[in-house]
Amino acid sequence: MIETYDAVLIGGGVMSATLGTLLKELQPDWKIVVCERLGDVALESSNAWNNAGTGHAALCELNYMPEGKDGSVDPAKAVAINEQFQQSRQLWSSLVERGVLDEPSTFINATPHMTFVRGEKDVAYLKKRYEVLKQQPLFEGIEYSEDSRVINQWAPLLMQHRRAGEPFAATRVPAGTDIDFGALTRQLFGNLKEQGVDVVTDCEVRRLKKQKDGTWKVSYRNTIGRTPGSINARFVFVGAGGWALKLLQRSGIPEISGYGVFPIGGQFLKTTNPAVVAQHKAKVYSQASVGAPPMSVPHLDTRVVDGEASLLFGPFATFSPKFLKNGSMLDIVTQVRSHNLLPMLKVAIDNPSLITYLVSELVKNHAKKVDSLREFVPTAKDEDWELIQAGQRAQVMKKDAEKGGVLQFGTEVIASEDGSIAGLLGASPGASTAASIMLGLLKTCFPERMGEWEPRLRELIPSYGETLNPRPDVARASMDATAATLGINA
């Protein structure tokens, strides 16, 4: 007899870990299983070295607040992303207080978030952005300077041997964070195991088929012995990174029609030289190159992984047809369907600058990449920096009524009409806003239960169902409380 679960979560990353945690808090009696195709959890996008570890709160990322054609800057998206990150902070804080998560420094550390720009045009834009953001309660404490002495105090590596007379400016928010999403994910899954959740590795889900009784037959294969098997599920979540598209297509739900993904890989330059690392404690973002996707905005980051500090610079885009770092070379081809072919072709036609950017990145050798680093760190030495491979990101391509097809940056939940299956496509800000994304999924898939679940959700996430930014005193109190619990006081 095939075993039936209340929920099957596909993928061993931070999204499944967050959803599993919420479901177990809301429905302790539910029978849940997690299926991960690799030998352990957090080995793909959630792994510490497969992402930059930025607690994305729009404190330093310019692409969340682009300049309009009329020269205006609208803070709405930046505020919305910050609101979402605050929900993640509140959830992690609650879990720390209950002992679900370990000592906070094992997964989150205070790291100022900065933006650094050069040239008169970008300096004018950054100042305009600062003037708008300093009025937003969630961005309280943001600082701005064009003074080399001040910026040198914030991030000395940026200012050494900088050319005289060059226009530059920086903003700084001391309350930024660096996050080891790999450690966070492993801790969440460790607790789920203690709560009776089956976390099964080396388990590759191959097919999803809707049964007459409304449940899903989840067919899988053991990746070591190639042993097949199947289970039934009342609810299925596909949180498998780029692999999610393939599984949602196999499920046959009409909601996936018109969707495709474009894989983009990345590399970082990394240094652990103590003399270099000691001179920089911040995540410093700048403007993206022409044609570069938002996820490729250059940044120089402090990282703390397993208690060791290092610096990363990048990312440098790479190309592979794989949807995952451990995917198939045929992924980009096997995704093609009659319903998504035209949208994907339209995206290719409408984004020649992206192709040009990728080609320019692919021809850079190590020396050229260090030359790019020197725009941030003029004194950088080749021998101090090694190149590491980051994860694969699958950017969403989908139908568009006006353009035919668009390349979308960000994340998107795709759910069936009856809410029995849902999957997540896309990338950044992803992991940082996992709590908010999974709350949205719960509303979509379990609308009839939200009234019953709301009291517990408010205990876990006090701002659930509300926004902080319009209430300065509440926003300040919330950020102070989570900062104290997580040990990230500025």
UniProtKB/TrEMBL annotation:
One Pfam family recorded for the sequence: Mqo
EC code(s) of this entry: 1.1.5.4
Keyword field contains Oxidoreductase: yes
Domain of life: Bacteria
Reactions this protein catalyses: (S)-malate + a quinone = a quinol + oxaloacetate
SUPFAM superfamilies per UniProt: FAD/NAD(P)-binding domain (SSF51905)
Keywords tagged on the record: FAD, Flavoprotein, Oxidoreductase, Tricarboxylic acid cycle
This protein's pathway: Carbohydrate metabolism; tricarboxylic acid cycle; oxaloacetate from (S)-malate (quinone route): step 1/1
The UniProt record lists the keyword Flavoprotein: yes
GO molecular function (one): L-malate dehydrogenase (quinone) activity
Cofactor: FAD
Xref: PANTHER family: L-2-HYDROXYGLUTARATE DEHYDROGENASE, MITOCHONDRIAL (PTHR43104:SF2)
Family: Belongs to the MQO family.
Protein name: Probable malate:quinone oxidoreductase
Gene of this entry: mqo
